[in-house]
Amino acid sequence: MIKLQQFFMRYKKQLLLVNTILLLLAEGSKWLLHMNLPYQALMLIVGIVGVLPIVLTAISSLRVKLISIDVLVSLAVIGAFIIGEFNEAAIVTWLFMLGDVLEELTLKKTRSAVADLTKMAPQTALVVQDDGSTEKKDVDFIDPGEKILVKTGDQVPVDGKVISGSGYLNEASVNGESKLVNKKAGNEVYAGTILENGTLTVETTAVGEDTTFGKIIEIVEEAQDTKSHTEKLINRFSKYYTPAVLIVAIVVGLITKDLRLAVTVMVLGCPGALVIGVPVSTVAGIGNGAKNGIMFKGSQVMDQTHRIDEIAFDKTGTLTIGHPEVSAIEVLNGSKDEIIKLAAQIERQSNHPLAQAIAKLNKEKPASIKVETVKGKGIIATLNNQKYYLGNQKFIVENTRANAKLGKTIDHLSQLGNSIVTFTNEDQSQLAVFGIKDQLRPEANDALTHLKELGVKKIVMLSGDNQETAERIATKLPIDEVHGQMLPQDKAAFVKKERAKGHHIAFIGDGINDSPALANANVAIAVGSGADVAIDVSDIVLVKNDLRKIAYALGLSKKTILNMSENIVMALLTVLLLFIGLFAGYVEMASGMFIHEFSILIVILNGMRLIKFQQN
């Protein structure tokens, strides 16, 4: 039986297609050719093919003492066969199969990105030997306390503490922050981060699954397994509905001794509109979202989304653009236009993120410039026998002279959350300070304000950046709480804590480091430009990277769930009226079937209204 169930599961779409074709042929033979025998034969075949997987599922549910809708449908279809109503059996099974396929299509997810994340974990490390030489070693065989050499461009293979050397690390895979972090002796480093500049010797504190990066993978996989057992929304109703209809049918049969009447009760009570109503609403709602740049991963996502009362945002790449840009230019001496042109041409020679931010200010092709990079400090450029310096304050002072006004300007821009690059020539006749920082998304304020208007009670920002910088960003937005210096496991712990308090929380992020929090939220929302793993574990993807779409998703979810409820009520009301009409003598099998099919059309049309939904 298990193999047969697996066969039907594997080929359910193909079986639906075959049954659809047979139904069309049956209707054609009846209405166009006026041939009743082929009509009945084709309907019998459709009914048998359609009922087999339903019966197998019903048997499985009965084994665990669950009277599901599959049980009612199976009995109703078998009863329809017994009294010769092959067309009703065929239509009921076809509708049931269609609803099942539609639901499966909307719930389908892939775990490929989680596998890709695992592959990103460092595999080998250069272990420093007692004689100072290095040996490449598998990370699984490295013990805490061993010393690891990390060179420019290498991935840090372990969690540890820097014991010698210095350099700039890209920690986006761990804390999501776009700016490079200067690491020196005494600082902690994390596996999976990349050394962009410099050389480090690291004393190992954790390896493999015990590293911060390893825990990211573990948390994501555990949370995904937890979410994979979500039941269909319709099962909430079948728990009580199915036994009730069966009891009514049995009682009617025992009292009246009329098998046809008892079967009619089951046939008319068979929830065709109930079965198709939820998937139609789901597909229409998801289709509307897709057209508007919002990808929902199933009906259960909408059910969760419409309950949201708290939203937690990652900062970098979510509330902000995700890469540094020049936010301020303070010219102390010289022509601003000339300084911008020269600085951009010089910085175009460097791949450093701060240099690239300045390089974007001028698109002219660079002149012939001789450039010398001083690691960790800046650039010395020679153009037309004139030397120019771009770098930090210490670098400028070392190569030119101290300047009190320069120091005040740098302090002011630093307090505003900027990373600083100073430009000058040898005599400081050209002197300017560039303030560079990640910028808020232009729609961020409107988006968060709209969420408040929709009833979201609490908006939180979680950031890997320091608390002061995070709070400075938050002052420009309607945010209730700010938490800085958070590692991936800290974000995930915060989400779990809020859920434990009874909040229905959504988390919005874009990076690998956000995936644990995303995986543990009631609703996980990823921006489309984010890492594959963030998108993979998310419930909703904002394809167009527009934060205003979060409010649209919330509104659409509420409307879709309302539409589902309307369809369920209409389906149940139709069954109730049919029963009243049946027992009052006003409804026969034929007229009941007509009303039954008409109710299905009504719920389909009602569900299709969602296609035209627009946010106010």
TrEMBL record:
UniProt keyword terms in alphabetical order: ATP-binding, Cadmium, Cell membrane, Ion transport, Membrane, Metal-binding, Nucleotide-binding, Translocase, Transmembrane, Transmembrane helix, Transport
A Pfam family it matches: Hydrolase
Keyword Glycosyltransferase set for record: no
A GO cellular-component term linked to this record: plasma membrane
MF GO annotations: ATP binding; ATP hydrolysis activity; metal ion binding; P-type cadmium transporter activity
Class in the EC hierarchy, top level: translocase
The keyword ATP-binding is annotated on this UniProt entry: yes
Residue ranges crossing the lipid bilayer per the database entry: 38-59, 237-255, 261-287, 568-587, 593-611
Membrane topology: Multi-pass membrane protein
Principal place of residence: membrane
Domain P-type ATPase A: 119-221
Catalysed transformations (reactions): Cd(2+)(in) + ATP + H2O = Cd(2+)(out) + ADP + phosphate + H(+)
Domain of life: Bacteria
Subcellular location as annotated: Cell membrane
Family: Belongs to the cation transport ATPase (P-type) (TC 3.A.3) family. Type IB subfamily.
Protein name: Cd(2+)-exporting ATPase
Phylogenetic classification of the source organism: Bacteria, Bacillati, Bacillota, Bacilli, Lactobacillales
